[in-house]
Design brief:
Elements (H helix, E strand, L loop, with lengths): L5 H12 L5 H8 L4 H10 L9 H6 L2 H19 L3 H5 L3 H17 L15 H10 L7 H16 L3 H22 L5 H23 L4 H7 L8 H6 L5 H8 L5 H14 L3 H18 L7 H26 L11
Pfam family, one: vATP-synt_AC39
InterPro entries: ATPase_csu/dsu_sf, ATPase_V0-cplx_csu/dsu, V-ATPase_V0D/AC39_subunit, V-type_ATPase_csu/dsu, V-type_ATPase_csu/dsu_dom_3
GO molecular function, one term: proton-transporting ATPase activity, rotational mechanism
């Protein structure tokens, strides 16, 4: 089956984007007197596309409604995209979550069904079967090799932190392999390189705080960044106030230095994570206006994910009796 053209995909995305919740709609929901009233206001906007069951509506299962909308969004993205491989890179966090959840559930002898997410690159039933049977030959090479290695590690010692880091590493290696094969040099490469460089910086500082050995740091460093992994390894003993000078490399070097300096002044590691999210969001914001790339498609997916985050914050705040702080995009 032929993939849709960019023109067709952009036309459909333009229509779908009109159904995103506006800042004023979210504020109105946030100002509701109860979670029940907020749910009523949310459903009146058409959110969830009437897919929620009567039981979900009756019990106020808002997270199921949010997950249902995200599932519909991911399904549409897969149907619309002219390039499933590159678009699929933005669904890898779903796969990563599911793989970790299923591995942990198998180790504990429990079920992960309630926390699994639909809409990743790997169908859930297939993924469940592979992890249960420990047969990974039908997965992409990076994931196949990584999961086989994890199974070998689990045979010796069941350390969730180790296999979690290995799954994260597989995600970035797989993304890099796809981008290299597709000769991707646009916003998708920029997005993953920024993500990797910031993530490696976070891992480096955590390793310093925990007094890790070099072998432990190497386990959590990821590929796809512009800063070589060896640079992070060489910085294991570098004081935070000197890290900026060592890591000022690549297209995002200046932003990374600013985040590191803010951390050095405040001691708040969360600053680097927030700057990373802001940088990723800015790349998507700029790309969503491109008419000859996947930017508008990925932009719509990203907007739905931010929208879901905002709704979870709102309903959590209403349930807890405090005021929700919405993501910056809605302020």
């Amino acid at each position: 089956m032929a993939q849709p053209s960019f023109e067709f995909a952009l036309g459909r995305i333009s229509v779908l984007s009109t159904h995103l919740l506006s800042a004023s709609q979210l504020r109105r929901i946030a100002e509701a007197g109860s979670t029940k009233e907020a749910q009523k206001l949310l459903l009146e906007t058409g959110y969830g596309e009437n897919a929620a069951t009567e039981q979900e509506l009756a019990t106020g299962e808002i997270d199921l409604i949010i997950r249902g909308q995200l599932q519909l969004t991911r399904k549409r993205i897969k149907e619309l995209t002219p390039d499933p491989e590159l678009t699929g890179l933005f669904l890898l966090p779903v796969d990563t979550h599911n793989i970790k959840a299923l591995l942990k559930a198998r180790l504990l002898g429990t079920s992960a069904d309630e926390i699994l997410r639909d809409g990743g690159n790997f169908p859930l039933d297939t993924l469940k079967d592979m992890i249960q049977t420990k047969y990974y030959e039908d997965m992409p090479p990076v994931y196949r090799d990584t999961l086989n290695e994890i199974e070998s590690e689990l045979g010796r010692e069941a350390d969730p932190l180790v296999f979690s880091a290995m799954v994260d590493g597989a995600m970035f290696r797989h993304a890099k392999a796809i981008m290299d094969a597709k000769h991707e040099k646009g916003f998708i490469r920029a997005y993953f390189s920024l993500w990797a460089d910031f993530q490696n910086t976070l891992s480096l500082i955590r390793a310093q705080n925990l007094h890790w050995e070099l072998s432990q740091l190497r386990l959590v460093l990821v590929d796809a960044g512009e800063i070589p992994r060896t640079v992070f390894e060489e910085c294991l003993d570098t004081p935070p106030e000197q890290l900026g000078a060592r890591l000022n490399q690549g297209a995002h070097g200046a932003d990374l230095v600013q985040a590191i300096n803010e951390f050095a002044q405040t001691g708040d590691l969360g600053i680097i994570a927030r700057r990373m999210q802001e940088g990723k969001m800015q790349i998507i914001r700029l790309a969503k206006w491109e008419t000859d790339s996947l930017g508008p498609i990925v932009g719509y997916l990203y907007a739905r994910e931010v929208e879901a985050e905002a709704l979870r914050l709102i309903f959590g705040a209403l349930a807890g009796g405090f005021e929700a702080e919405l993501p910056e995009i809605y302020t």
